[in-house]
Design brief:
The complex is a heterodimer of chains A (406) and B (277). Chain A is α/β, with parallel strands linked by helices and 406 residues long. Chain A has helices spanning 33-47, 50-64, 74-80, 99-112, 126-138, 148-153, 155-163, 178-191, 209-217, 219-232, 247-253, 282-285, 323-330, 341-355, 361-377, 395-401, and strands at 19-20, 23-27, 70-72, 84-89, 117-122, 142-147, 167-171, 196-198, 238-242, 263-271, 287-291, 293-298, 334-340, 382-387. In chain A, the strands form three sheets. A six-stranded mixed sheet of chain A has the order 3-4-14-9-10-13, with helices on both faces. In chain A, strands 1-2-12-11 form a four-stranded antiparallel sheet. Chain A has a four-stranded parallel sheet with strand order 7-6-5-8, sandwiched between helices. Chain A starts with 18 loop residues before the first strand and ends in a 5-residue tail after the last helix. With 277 residues, chain B is α/β, with parallel strands linked by helices. Chain B has one domain (4-270): Aldolase class I (TIM Barrel), CATH 3.20.20.70. Helix content of chain B is 50%, strand content 13%. Chain B contains twelve helices and nine strands. In chain B, helix 2 (32-45) packs parallel to helix 12 (252-268) and helix 9 (192-206) packs parallel to helix 10. The two termini of chain B are 29 Å apart. The mean pLDDT of chain B is 94. Classes of the chains: A alpha/beta (406), B alpha/beta (277). Chains A and B meet through strand 2, helix 1, helix 8, strand 11 and strand 12 of A and helix 3, helix 5 and strand 6 of B.
């Protein structure tokens, strides 16, 4: 593949066909195509409607609890001995992660479109919980597809969804994880086209989802921009986030895309190690292909069969990545590193001990690369890390890995 | 493009005054040898055209029967390369029966469209259906297929309204596949009454024969479809015979071919005694 040229305005993508360079697009069965086009038109109308934006903004303030704080992590900064570390506290949002930002936007859109039934896929269960939450709030029936393996390792979230009135369908096909949950949600959508809205949880899938989810998550980066200017009087030197599908990362990156002095660093899940083949790092260990409606980096074999992802984190355990990340990687605007299960567990414990915060095991992947980034940036610099979720849901997983009974 | 075998077959059937029976099988299900035996037996059992599924790990528009068939094929080591090898073997003894490949985008993207088209033409493939490449994404693939004179066959669906149909049938040849229900394969049953006007709309928009599939499981239903469409496609019911044969430890080839024979017979006689349509 030829290296694509650097664009003048990174924030002007995707194009009308949903393309970020060669990535993105709308690779869906014909039955869904009219719905996808309808969704695109409805989203564009809502985006331009001040009433919709005001409604969204009001719920973000009074229901989600925005803006989330930008917190100077003094002890973590001292510990690493490099740049000043700020944490964007998305884990303090209602439901405990950034996922609610996107769900609130999409549920308002679904209502506006007159849809009466919501479906979603979930990996760790954070998106499922956020979807079940907004469905309860707006009185819409909700079906959440979740891989049977994930149902087992994220039991507390399954119960939370049930309490919120959602029906959780355990998916046993394929590897019984997030990609299979997404297949099953698509099968539901193609069967129930007349009344159903598919509330995708990450900035991936067919156009307009990568753009729409990014827009709803960009509230993170917009707030960081204002907050850091107020706190430090300047933009950060680097912004770091974990990447599975990549919605929290694109949300914090996007408002900084045209500030080329701000390094954007995504961290993929290296699982048991990149050399073992047991990882979930689509960019670092995959190549471009088509899955779930978009062209993007994928874990696949020589014949284009999708291979299983491996990660301690259910939320990063996906063989693909959002198309905008694939493009930002190829044009060189963002850098994608990796962190192993073990490094992430160590980072999880470190944040708990030094700052009194239990991070989601997903967010701990970003934390694991923080010492390197803080050192590279140096003492006079500023680094912002997106703390995308809280770790209460992961306590059992962490205990298990530490060999402890709880 | 020529689409010679497909056009010749539909012209011949039109002269006979009957619809085609199209059998869908998964390549190398349950293994290469048995899959080849089934493929070779299909024309004599009554299949006028054959759709050969090439397996994909994540078949998002398939119901459980074809999902399981793909898993069986993948487990036996099948993929796109072996699917083409299977068809090349079949072509050694059959030069007339059209073969349509059906599957998902990524194995084609992985191989490269141009290389795929070249290899498919050499193997004796006549046309291609890709479930997850809608017209909006199809031009690069259509260019590659045109260069090898292969047909790109399109799926029209209950959601393809009059505004959408002209887009759906653009750059298509051979025939149009009408997906008779909104849903995945092998679950809901097509209602022949609702199918007739839809087939007529697709025929008018495309000027091509219209095959109808999804949800056709019995000879009676196949006959009802054959009265209103140019072809009836059966897939899930055939791959279920493979599954049932394996479970009962019976001759899989025999089970599939006898199912094909009963379905084909009923399609053949569907219009007998009827006034010309």
């Amino acid at each position: 593949m030829n290296a694509p040229s650097r664009p003048n305005d990174y924030s002007s993508y995707p194009d009308a066909n949903g393309r970020f360079g060669e990535f993105g697009g709308r690779y869906v069965p014909e039955t869904l195509m009219p719905l996808v086009l309808e969704l695109d038109a409805a989203y564009r109308a809502a985006k331009a409607d001040p009433e919709f934006q005001a409604q969204l903004s009001s719920f973000m303030t009074h229901y989600v609890g925005r803006p989330s704080p930008l917190y100077f992590a003094e002890r973590l900064t001292e510990h690493f001995g490099g740049a000043k570390i700020y944490l964007k506290r998305e884990e303090l949002n209602h439901t405990g992660s950034h996922k609610i930002n996107n769900c609130m936007g999409q549920i308002l859109l679904a209502q506006r479109m007159g849809k009466t039934r919501i479906i979603a896929e979930t990996g760790a269960g954070q998106h499922g919980v956020a979807t079940a939450t907004v469905c309860a709030r707006f009185g819409l029936p909700c079906v959440v597809y979740m891989g049977a393996v994930d149902v087992e390792r994220q039991k507390p979230n399954v119960f939370r969804m049930n309490l919120l009135g959602a029906q959780v369908e355990a998916v046993t096909s394929g590897s019984a994880t997030l990609k299979d949950a997404m297949n099953e949600a698509l099968r539901d959508w193609v069967t129930n086209v007349h009344d159903t809205y598919y509330l995708i949880g990450t900035a991936a899938g067919m156009h307009p989802y990568p753009e729409m989810v990014r827009d709803f998550q960009s509230v993170i980066g917009k707030e960081v921009r204002e907050q850091i200017l107020e706190l430090e009087g300047r933009l950060p030197d680097a912004v770091v986030a974990c990447v599975g599908g990549g919605s929290n990362a694109i949300g914090i990156f996007h408002p900084f895309l045209n500030d080329e002095g701000v390094r954007l660093i995504g961290v993929e899940a290296a699982g048991e190690g990149m050399g073992t083949g047991k990882h979930a790092a689509a960019i670092n260990g995959g190549r471009p292909g088509v899955l779930h409606g978009n062209m993007t980096y994928l874990l696949q074999d020589d014949e284009g069969q999708i291979t299983e992802a491996h990660s301690i984190s259910a939320g990063l355990d996906y063989p693909g990545i959002g198309p905008e990340h694939s493009w930002l990687n190829d044009v060189g605007r963002a850098t994608y590193l990796t962190a192993t299960d073990q490094e992430s567990l160590d980072a999880f414990k470190l944040l708990a001990e030094l700052e009194g915060i239990l991070p989601a095991i997903e967010s701990a992947h970003a934390l694991a690369r923080l010492p390197d980034v803080a050192r590279d940036v140096g003492k006079d610099g500023v680094v912002v890390l997106n703390l995308s979720g809280r770790g209460d849901k992961d306590v059992a997983t962490v205990a298990n890995h530490l060999g402890r009974q709880i | 493009m020529t689409t010679a075998r497909i056009d010749a077959r539909f012209s011949a059937l039109k002269a006979e005054g009957r619809a085609a029976f199209i059998a869908y099988v998964m390549a190398g299900d349950p293994d290469f040898e048995t899959g080849l035996e089934i493929l070779k037996g299909l024309p004599a059992a009554g299949a006028d055209l054959i759709e050969v599924g090439f397996p994909f790990s994540d078949p998002m528009a398939e119901g459980p029967p074809i999902q399981r068939a793909a898993q069986r094929a993948l487990s036996s080591g099948m993929g796109l390369a072996k699917t083409l090898a299977l068809i090349a073997e079949f072509r050694k003894s059959d030069q007339d029966t059209p073969i349509i490949l059906m599957g998902y985008a990524n194995p084609l993207v992985s191989r490269g469209y141009a290389a795929f088209a070249r290899d498919a033409a050499a193997a004796g493939v006549d046309g291609l259906i890709v479930v997850d490449i809608p017209p909006e994404e199809a031009d690069p693939l259509a260019d590659a297929l045109d260069a090898e004179e292969l047909s790109l066959i399109r799926l029209a669906t209950p959601t393809s309204d009059d505004n959408r149909l002209p887009t759906v049938v653009r750059r298509t040849s051979g025939f149009v596949y009408y997906v008779s229900v909104a849903g995945v394969t092998g679950v809901k049953e097509a209602d022949a009454g609702a199918v007739a006007p839809a087939v007529e709309r697709v025929r008018k928009a495309s000027g091509l024969p219209v095959a109808v599939g999804f949800g056709i499981k019995t000879p009676e239903r196949a006959a009802a479809i054959a009265r209103v469409a140019d072809a009836a496609v059966v897939g899930s019911a055939l791959v279920e015979e493979v599954a049932a044969g394996l479970a009962a430890n019976e001759d899989v080839t025999q089970r599939v071919l006898s199912k094909v024979a009963s379905l084909a017979k009923s399609v053949r006689h569907a219009r007998a005694g009827q006034a010309a349509l």
